[in-house]
Prior knowledge:
With 293 residues, the protein is an alpha/beta fold. It has two domains: 2-85; 93-277, no CATH class. It is 45% helix and 19% strand. The protein has eight helices and ten strands. The strands form two sheets. Strands 1-10-9-8-2-6-7 form a seven-stranded mixed β-sheet. A three-stranded antiparallel β-sheet has the order 3-4-5, covered by helices on one side. A hairpin with an 8-residue loop joins strand 4 and strand 5 (129-131). Helix 6 packs across helix 7. The longest helix has 36 residues, at 2-37. The relative contact order is 0.14.
Amino acid sequence: MKHFNNLLKLLGNLQFIKITILTLTAVISAGWFGDALKGDCLFTQIHSINTCGKAGYFLSLIFSFLIFIVFTGFLYITSQQLFYRNLKWVEGVRPHRVLIIAVSALKTRLDEKDGDIYLCGGEKIKEKRIKLTGNISQDIEAFTQIDFTVNTQQFLRAVKPHIENHILERVFLIGSEGAEGSAKKFQEVKKILLLYKNNLEIETYGNEVNGIRFEDVEELCEAYENLIKQAKDKNYTENDIILDVTGGQKTASIAAAMTTFRHRNLKFQYVETGENNAVLTFNIEIGSASRIL
Length: 293
């Protein structure tokens, strides 16, 4: 592995040397082209025209322009190879003002009684039932205490870092289509969120009944881009926004990664399944191979 890393570092250094040479050559050829435009007769050693008449002028102009175009083209191609794209992740997430969530269909049923909100299990776990208190940490723990393993708990874990310190101001919900799609649960999701912050601004993407196809990466990317634009139109910056893909399919993660690549300061998060249930933050990092290696 050490030799492999050394090889990568050497290749990165060679690329840096190559791009430096090409840059200098492109600059020099641009100077030649400028001299030719002023009427200087160039490259007399490689053509048979020794006088600086029209023929010599046009040959100088054409040769210098072609050299400039060729080396500039090689410079562009090499520069594209020099840069790399790397998916970076860290454990933990700082609070954000805007949360864009790809919501999965919650496996709980919401019941309201005497002003209280309860989450109940489906047919297979109908005996499970918890009362939401408005304290998100306490409610997340309530699921664990009665072994109530449903995706609603993961949803709350995704929201918690942003809402518990009252930093979160706006949530955009993206729902999946179909009779069993998450778009059908939007009203329940809104009631849950408003329990933890009653002045939270909540907006939904697209038709609340139909939703979108979570299997379609392009459609998800379009949804993310539209919602990011809406947030920016409300004077939020990319640093204020985070995407959550906890409830989405793998395509949601792919779409989020593609979106963060197009927006330098944008990140997306995912709640890990397992003992820790840590919130992981991801971003596409762009830089030169020689600098990173």
